[in-house]
Amino acid sequence: MLAAKDTRPDLADLDLPALEALFAREGFPRFRARQVFGWIYRRGQTEFAAMTNLGGELRTQLAHRFQITTPRLTHEDRSTDGTRKFLFELRDGRRIEAVYIPDTPKQTFCISSQVGCAMDCDFCLTGKMGFLRNLTPAEIAGQVRVLATATGLAGTSFNIVLMGMGEPLHNYEAVMTSIRILADAQGMAVAPRRITLSTVGLIPAMERLAQEEIMPNLAVSLHATTDEQRDRLVPINRKYPLAALVETCKRFPMKRRHRITFEYVLLEGINDTPDDARRLVRLLTDVKAKVNLLPLNAAPGIPYERPSDARVDRFARLLAERGLRVSVRKSRGRDIRAACGQLIVDGQKKTSAGRLADAMAT
Ligand code: SAH
After folding, report:
1. Contact 64, 9 (CB under 8 A)
2. Do 114 and 131 touch, CB atoms closer than 8 A?
3. Please, are residues 22 and 14 in contact by the beta-carbon 8 Å criterion?
4. Which of 23, 80, 151, 304 has the lowest tally of Cβ within 10 angstroms?
5. Which amino acid residue places its CA nearest to atom 15 of ligand 1?
6. 224 ligand 1 Cβ < 6 A
7. Ligand 1 atom 8 nearest Cα
8. What residues are annotated to the active site?
9. Ligand 1 pocket, 199 CB below 6 A?
10. Could you tell me how far CA 113 lies from the centroid of its own chain?
11. CA Rg, the chain, in Å?
12. Ligand 1: distance of its center to the CA of 149 in Å?
């Protein structure tokens, strides 16, 4: 039997100002909103009945009118290197993944922003799933709540990277609401400088981001140094080409000493030659940049090879010698398919008949 859909508004979709406004509209005192927010994000408590400082009657009323949802953790894999991959099942049966990467040098949670992805980058497995749907703020911020509890890191300081499944700027509103929720001093109070948003370079959304009050660090997936090359690897380049993207990065407001991270996946023989390195240096002249090299995590169905360590070193050295800041991302959790570009949940692309059969079987 299909359960009747719960249509009560989900308080986990709201940042604190929106929660306060909702409470005010419903005739509840404003400070109650802060209390509820604190229960969810400081204490990890989502049952109204357990929110003991609210008073019995209010708890009953809240439970009647609202719900607080949390993505359901259904499976966990542990890598030999300590990385842990979490599989979540969402209320519509869709599944997403998030990753905990220990000591890099800080503890890091890598979370998803969409089910699948529409960007279709040529070397990324998530792209092969296609785009299924956007995540809600409850589903995005909820991943952090669950990971913080599962890893015992609730109440400590950790990094969050929006580098899981999906293109975060393609789900702008929900992602920004989640960032406000996570950063709020009344809740988890994750400092915005501990949050990094990685994008393929959706220029209008980047321009919007530039106006935000709470601003995460920015990482841009560059991956190529000519439009011809990038059109093929990162198809959105046909709409937002390199020169315009770099121009947007130059204008992006940044605090002193801050830099945009440019991610550059290294594909053997494709974009890892000395000429590529020199073009990359030229492209990023006048940009406050650091480059993060990602040697490809190869996978079946991905038509590229990972370069040897020697080639990676040569590329990194060419950048460093010309004054670019450069780091090589250590690939973590490859044995459990938790590394960059490897997040994919099998069997989600179903015909509607298949989905119906599944729904009727539960
Ligand atoms: N959609 C966003 C967020 C994903 S972040 C973005 O593209 O920036 C994940 C990073 O891993 C991106 O830089 C992505 O291009 C990179 N990546 C994707 N597939 C990869 C692979 N197979 N090996 C290494 N890095 C990969």
Report:
1. no
2. yes
3. yes
4. 80
5. 221
6. no
7. 199
8. 97, 340
9. yes
10. 5
11. 21
12. 26
Q: Which two three-digit tokens encode residue 207? A: 């321009």
Q: Please name the residue whose Cα sits nearest to atom 11 of ligand 1.
A: 340
Structure confidence at residue 339 as a pLDDT band (50, 70, 90)? confident
Q: Is the CB of 229 under 6 A from ligand 1?
A: no
Confidence of residue 347 (pLDDT cuts 50, 70, 90): low
Atom of ligand 1 nearest to the CA of 165: 4
In terms of C-beta distances under 8 Å and separation of at least 24 residues, what long-range contacts does 205-212 make, across chains too?
A: 205/169, 205/170, 205/172, 206/169, 206/248, 206/249, 206/252, 207/248, 208/172, 209/169, 209/176, 210/251, 210/252, 210/253, 212/176
- Minimal-distance CA residue to ligand 1 atom 4: 163
Burial of residue 201 (number of CB atoms within 10 Å: 0-12, 13-18, 19+):
buried
Going by the DSSP 8-state scheme, the letter that residue 299 receives in this structure is -
CA of 352 to the centre of ligand 1 (A): 29
Question: Measuring CA to CA, how many Å separate 312 from each of 93, 181, 267, 316, 351?
Answer: 40, 38, 10, 6, 42
CA–centroid distance, 357 to ligand 1, in Å, is 34
| SS3 (DSSP) at 82 | coil
In the predicted structure, residue 19 carries a pLDDT above the cut 60 = yes
Residue type, 289: A
In whole angstroms, give the CA distance from residue 277 to residue 321.
11
Q: Is 263 in the pocket of ligand 1 (CB under 6 A)?
A: yes
Q: What ranges make up the beta strands (E) of the chain?
A: 72-78, 84-89, 95-101, 108-110, 114-116, 131-134, 159-162, 195-199, 217-221, 260-266, 289-295, 325-328
Contact 26, 65 (CB under 8 A): yes
pTM of the model: 0.93
Is the model's pLDDT at 276 over the cut of 50? yes
Rounded to whole angstroms, the Cα distance separating 187 from 275 reads 48
Question: Does the CB atom of residue 294 touch ligand 1 within 6 A?
Answer: yes
